[in-house]
């Protein structure tokens, strides 16, 4: 009941689209379209929310960003069995960065403008692609790998070929900043099978990483997707994350949800082999989820007669670049007076662009809340759900890890909000305040991802000063632990409110009077306890976590206090 449907491979075919940039576009075609035509589906049908109050919208980029014309899609697939962590041998090589002097630059792309701040945007970005970014191959015998990242969420800055099979990669920092390099997503083509390559990403900034605790990067082969319906899979061996020798020991200047060091710099290095000759592959830190992916999902909800009857979509505001920040209202259709009696649940996601598990969990939440099953019906009849699935679309689009286009972490701006600089945060806070006045807000959830801890867990806000509610904030996470089974860890949850978190959504909403205010953290890695210990999360795990979050809401607010008391006493 309320389960997520398994994707059917007969319903989707992944093919390469012919054209100027055919090696960088994997398109999902519905079987009927694939049978009748080789053309990809119309962008107009896929990337807008068709609604009177929420018209077709195209993606806006900073004008200096070069963007390949074809949109990138990936087959939504996951392995039958959880993929195991990498087991370190203790003998992994630690090659130090050598830079341009001892190698050959084979990719170089840093968007530049006359000013080092966001000035204006345009639809689709700059379509002029500088050929110097990626030098052409000399001839058919040239085995140099070809790199590309000028697409949504991509963020590769420079690649230096050190030897025939060894490449140094530099990530772009968040736009209009000189920091925050952790997320990565790029394409590789002109591959050769059964050759061991070494990739070193040499300008990462965190002092520790899950790559030192079993996590492996992800690889997507367009040929495997087209021929076998295979999506993202974990890859690489000889994985190690280490500090570069020439780094200074500057202290951390900012206390983020999972920490962020300005300096020193670190290297992630690994060996990788490719399954096919002349394939196009994508390498990523985690499963990508772009702004266009969100728009496609919202359109699928809108085009479903039942889902659209319980889910109203509109634009909450526009981002700094002019992209719509979508707001979904999910509830059962009832007379206005009855609707005013309902309490509200507010859910937000993707304030940090690089934290893609947030979007996959949010997708699972939306699929459950708009489903035609008894638990979803009961939740909709009891509550009004206000959902903002992507708070930072600009950052997502350009491939940032943490910031918006004003170069700031939006999850530190809730306490003192400047509307013009942080429109999504200002409107979210105003919406919560209005809902509290008109309905009452019983829960707030902000979905994130964590780069240093395994498992999925919650951060809450302890209520020490109110004896009537003391420890009550821990009951919902405890129930979620029972429902989440092999994915959620109550042991990893924390409830202390630190001073450095006073500007975050969770703490500010709690200080506004919402007792149950949580940050959900989903590891980029996987599970470290229980029967699934030592295995990675996949897309299905994140979707299922969204469903289990909703099922736990159903149980927690079930008007049977004996059940809640019984669970708390276990």
TrEMBL record:
Keywords noted in UniProt: Carboxypeptidase, Hydrolase, Metal-binding, Metalloprotease, Protease, Zinc
Record: active site: 521
Cofactor dependence: Zn(2+)
GO biological process: proteolysis
InterPro entries hit by this protein: Cytosolic_carboxypeptidase (IPR050821), Pepdidase_M14_N (IPR040626), Peptidase_M14 (IPR000834)
Record CDD domains: M14_AGBL2-3_like
Protein's recorded name: Peptidase M14 domain-containing protein
Species, as recorded: Cherax quadricarinatus
